[in-house]
């Protein structure tokens, strides 16, 4: 599989009454996702694959 689109949007569903959670998620996404590329994210999951396989 080839990912050609390096810009990826992140979305989460939050109940309307959870405004503090929504604000925290916005802040978390802004600070953690800054500068990440598709290759960075895929690399993290590739590194975790052996660990996750042992949990099954």
Secondary structure elements and pairings:
Blueprint: H1 19-32, H2 38-55
Overall residue-averaged pLDDT value: 79
Q: What is the terminal separation in angstroms? A: 25 Å
Task: Give a count of the beta strands, DSSP E runs of length 2 or more.
Answer: 0
- Written as H for each helix and E for each strand, in order along the chain, the element string is HH
Structural class: mainly alpha
User: What is the 3D form?
Assistant: extended
Low-confidence stretches: none
How big a fraction of the residues is strand?
A: under 5%
What is the radius of gyration? 15 Å
Percent in helix: 55-70%
Count up the helices.
Answer: 2
Largest sheet: none
Structure description:
With 56 residues, this protein is mostly helical. It has a domain at 17-55. The chain is built from 2 helices and no strands. The longest helix is centred in the last third of the chain and has 18 residues, at 38-55. The two termini are 25 Å apart. The mean pLDDT is 79.
What's this entry about, in short?
Helices cover 57% and strands 0% of the residues. The chain is mostly helical. The protein has a domain at 17-55.
Q: What descriptive keywords fit this protein?
A:
mainly alpha, 56 residues, extended, 2 helices
């Amino acid at each position: 599989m080839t990912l050609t689109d390096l810009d990826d949007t992140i979305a989460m569903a939050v109940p309307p009454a959870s405004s503090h959670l929504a604000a925290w998620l916005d802040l978390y996404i802004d600070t953690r996702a800054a500068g990440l590329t598709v290759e960075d994210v895929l690399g993290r999951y590739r590194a975790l694959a052996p660990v996750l396989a042992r949990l099954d």
